[in-house]
Design brief:
Layout (H helix, E strand, L loop, with lengths): L1 H30 L3 H22 L5 H18 L4 H8 L3 H5 L5 H40 L10
């Protein structure tokens, strides 16, 4: 039962985080000028892909999520070499936000930075929450006199 609750709460937290990242990325894209802002928005794009993948696959290993997020971002960037995303943006301008229009090798670096950053952030935050949960469970078990043993069924 605890695993289901953890998966549900992880999905909820990841959904909120993805929403926040999308909002932050759009604010940076539209209101912050300059190349550095563009690179930050690109890194956030990969963070958002990671978070969406993690919502869909909450039990997936973080390293695989980071690698997949980078791969998806890089494939979309490489697709810009074909000119198809640019043509799509002419017929449907909002697609420019998802697929971009012009290739930049520097964007690949930003995607890698975003994948590494979200991997470590997820690892650190999950470890802290797990430690906090374990401490809370231990305190409530100690107060009730119950102790968990590996041989007890969950």
């Amino acid at each position: 039962m605890t695993l289901v609750k953890t998966t549900k709460s992880r999905r909820l937290a990841l959904s909120f985080a993805a929403t926040d990242v999308i909002i932050l990325g759009l604010v940076i894209h539209f209101f912050v000028p300059g190349d550095v802002a563009s690179l930050i928005a690109d890194a956030l794009y990969t963070v958002m892909v990671y978070l969406v993948l993690a919502v869909i696959l909450p039990r997936a290993k973080r390293a695989w999520l980071a690698l997949a997020a980078f791969a998806i971002s890089a494939l979309i960037e490489l697709a810009q070499l074909t000119g198809v995303p640019e043509q799509l943006a002419v017929s449907f301008p909002p697609s420019r936000l998802v697929f971009g229009t012009t290739f930049s090798a520097l964007d690949l670096v930003a995607y890698a930075v975003g994948a590494v950053a979200v991997y470590y952030a997820d690892t650190i935050i999950s470890a802290r929450l797990s430690a906090r949960s374990s401490a809370s469970d231990s305190a409530s078990d100690s107060a009730s006199g119950a102790q968990w043993r590996p041989t007890q069924p969950e």
